[in-house]
Amino acid sequence: MSGESIYTNKLHPGSGFPTMSATLLDGKQVTLGKPANEADWQLVVVYRGRHCPLCTRYLNNLEQFKDELLNTGVDIIAVSGDSKAQLQDHLVQLDVSFPLAYGLTLEQMEELGVYISDPRSPQETDHSFAEPALFVINAEGKIQVVDISNNPFVRPELSALVSGLKWIRDPQNNYPIRGMHR
Fold it and tell me: In this record, what's one Pfam family (predicted)?
């Protein structure tokens, strides 16, 4: 390590989520941040990939909240920089029904402002990968909630995230996008 500072561009709350696509296992291209299933918001979960047991556990836990989120108007998609073959292999460990996309490029990771790591060894994985992040995109295509981590050990606790999104979505609370002070 040379001690040089490394900076990443971060997406800011209230800004528009960038237009980017990823690929589902069936080959279909999806646009991240564009909700489906009659929802008007989307939770985009960026995960490290098949090599990460904490990601596997997080995604499997997220499945338990899928219906509650959808009832709140929030759709889910998860994406990594894994290859199609790596995602197919990962499915053996995953028990999720929300869409999983693969092939997030380094350029897309940089545009999202996520931290990027190199594998510690060829046994870990064969490509640089995104560290965990999540983005909640509202009906206007703006970032309502953002959480970016530089390691797999720090992620939003799912029950708190889901109850918070339910509270934010309740029109009686008139809750603004937070973190907008300049």
Answer: AhpC-TSA
List of the chain residues with pLDDT < 50: 1
> 117 CB contacts (<8 Å, ≥6 apart)?
48, 128, 129, 131
| Domain CATH for 41 | 3.40.30.10
Confidence (pTM): 0.93
> Would 182 be classed as within a structural domain?
no
